[in-house]
Amino acid sequence: DQQVKQNSPSLSVQEGRISILNCDYTNSMFDYFLWYKKYPAEGPTFLISISSIKDKNEDGRFTVFLNKSAKHLSLHIVPSQPGDSAVYFCAASEMDDKIIFGKGTRLHILP
Amino acid sequence: DGGITQSPKYLFRKEGQNVTLSCEQNLNHDAMYWYRQDPGQGLRLIYYSQIVNDFQKGDIAEGYSVSREKKESFPLTVTSAQKNPTAFYLCASSIDGTGGTDTQYFGPGTRLTVL
Prior knowledge:
The complex is a heterodimer. Chain A is mostly beta strands. In chain A, 0% of the residues lie in helices and 54% in strands.
């Protein structure tokens, strides 16, 4: 039973446009959410996170939005750049518990 | 130059053989983790350790074993009991393992192929 769902396996976006990656979760006890970015044959790297007490967190071109009532979060990348082409993992955790990862969304930035 | 190292990058083994994957970190982190990634799958937790000489099973521990004799090292053994061992294995570490707020840092991974 997947607690963290990324329903889009892949997404293609034109360079310079906004990329929106979506993530849904089922466990209402999750209180911390993260996004990781992964290039092929490399380990994931931490990108941005958000606590459940917030609904938005911004870091440069990356913004994460959290809608607790819908159990949904999204990652916005604007403007999208070629180096953003990667697999993005959504992850969530309850306080003091392990992180649960989604299956990932492969983002292709088109020239 | 701090970080997490995993060796080797690629590993081939014959079916029925045990194999040990190395993971070393010099970040002075207390917690270390092993994940497995399969095509179309997320990262699934195999084992984790929050302190030396202690470790806990993750979601898919069957067929795997670990040890944590030193803070810097967390080797993973893939035993012959693991039914589908071919995968990309990722090691991670974090400061103290206290949930999601404790950011995990990943190594470069080892791709294991069992022939």
